[in-house]
Structures are given as structure tokens and as C-alpha cells.
Design brief:
heterodimer; A: mainly beta; four-stranded antiparallel sheet; 10 strands; B: mainly beta; six-stranded mixed sheet; about 0% helix; globular
């Protein structure tokens, strides 16, 4: 079946603008993760959704970052008032359950803030 | 705090040579260790996890709790092994993973 999909694949925006990044997880997967990969850095955890539980937002770097997951499926990561340091590849992953299940990654969204 | 260190940004070997990609971690508790791989123009995917004790594509990794290491090894590298490799750690019953900065493996003919 289809894997995790993300859109857009590339996004260029001006400093101060808001952006929305979308993730479609694998159908039936209850867990969804957002990570960020900055140049020369490893993947940095941002947020985790599991079913109807409250999300784990412990990785969000500032209050400019937020995410929601509607209907337990699609997720949107929103960055408000973008800064140049927000430039990175944003990766989404999903897993069948939560703890212990393999995470399947999407192709990522490359965000460039000018 | 959990931390994963991959000391080599680039590892270049010839085809048929042994390869070892290093991974050291710091963690208090019972960790679960993973290796993820990203081939050119493909998405990140799981290669292996220590709890499975399996060999994937000829790669193995042994968790050494004394040395807090989880090095990835293959006795005879192939050109198709060229990729970016990431070591990651999570706790048992984990949710989020902590990744290293990755090592690029380049296998030359």
C-alpha cells in the first residue's frame, strides 16, 4: 500500500510568514511523529500523536510551532512567523501502534526561509 | 538525557572491505537501539534494531552496554551499501527516538 506522504515537497517562504506542512500517515497507523533535520544535524524529535491521547509536544522548539492531527489521520505542522533558523527538512513518520512499533518515514518537506 | 554520537561523518571503503559504523550512546535506563538507512533519493527506513538480533543485508549490530556502543558492521561491503546511516535510541516502550547526526558510507568499486 501507499507509504507516508508529505506535502509540499519543497517550500520557500519569507521570514515572518506562516507555513503549514502536511502529513498523510499510512492507513490504519495510530501513531504519528514529526521530526526536523537541520543541516549537519541529526533528526530532532518535535511532536508525537498516539490515538486520542494528548500529544507529546516536548520537542517543539518554541511556541511558534504547533501541530494538530484531525480525525486521527492527517496531521498539519504549522510554523508561525518563520525565522531563518527554521530552515530544515521536516520529516513525518507513522507507526501501527505506539511503543515499540517500527516507524515509517515520509519523504520530507524541505523548508527554506529567506 | 539521551544522546547518540556518531563520530564519523564520512566513511569511505572499497568494495569487499569490512565496514564498521560507530555509534555510542548515553542513556539511563533500558535503551532500545536502532539503525536507520537512507539511500540516495529514497526515504529513511529502518535497517535493524538490537532487540531483534537479526542480520539485514549482511549488517549486524551488537549492543555493548559496558561500552555504551551499538556499532554497525558488515564483513564485506557492497557498492549498493552506499548510503547515509543513522543510529537512534529510544527507551523500551518508546515513543520518540533520538537520532545521531549520521554517517555517510561510500563504497567504491
Amino acid at each position: 500500500g501507499a507509504g507516508v506522504s508529505q506535502s509540499p515537497s519543497n517550500k520557500v517562504t519569507e521570514k515572518g510568514k506562516d507555513v503549514e506542512l502536511r502529513c498523510d500517515p499510512i492507513s490504519g497507523h495510530t501513531a504519528l511523529y514529526w521530526y526536523r533535520q537541520s543541516l549537519g544535524q541529526g533528526l530532532e524529535f518535535l511532536i508525537y500523536f498516539q490515538g486520542n491521547s494528548a500529544p507529546d509536544k516536548s520537542g517543539l522548539p518554541s511556541d511558534r510551532f504547533s501541530a494538530e492531527r484531525t480525525g486521527g489521520s492527517v496531521s498539519t505542522l504549522t510554523i508561525q512567523r518563520t525565522q531563518q533558523e527554521d530552515s530544515a527538512v521536516y520529516l513525518c513518520a507513522s507507526s501501527l501502534g505506539g511503543a515499540g512499533d517500527t516507524q515509517y518515514f515520509g519523504p520530507g518537506t524541505r523548508l527554506t526561509v529567506l | 538525557a539521551q544522546r547518540v554520537t556518531q563520530p564519523e561523518k564520512l566513511l569511505s571503503v572499497f568494495k569487499g572491505a569490512p565496514v564498521e559504523l560507530k555509534c555510542n550512546y548515553s542513556y539511563s535506563g533500558s535503551p532500545e537501539l536502532f539503525w536507520y538507512v537512507q539511500y540516495s533519493r529514497q526515504r529513511l527506513q529502518l535497517l535493524l534494531r538490537h532487540i531483534s538480533r537479526e542480520s539485514i543485508k549482511g549488517f549486524t549490530a551488537d549492543l555493548n552496554k559496558g561500552e555504551t556502543s551499538f556499532h554497525l558492521k558488515k564483513p564485506f561491503a557492497q557498492e549498493e551499501d552506499s548510503a547515509m546511516y543513522y543510529c537512534a535510541i529510544g527507551r523500551l516502550g518508546f515513543q520518540k527516538l533520538v537520532f545521531g547526526t549520521g554517517t555517510r558510507l561510500l563504497v567504491s568499486p
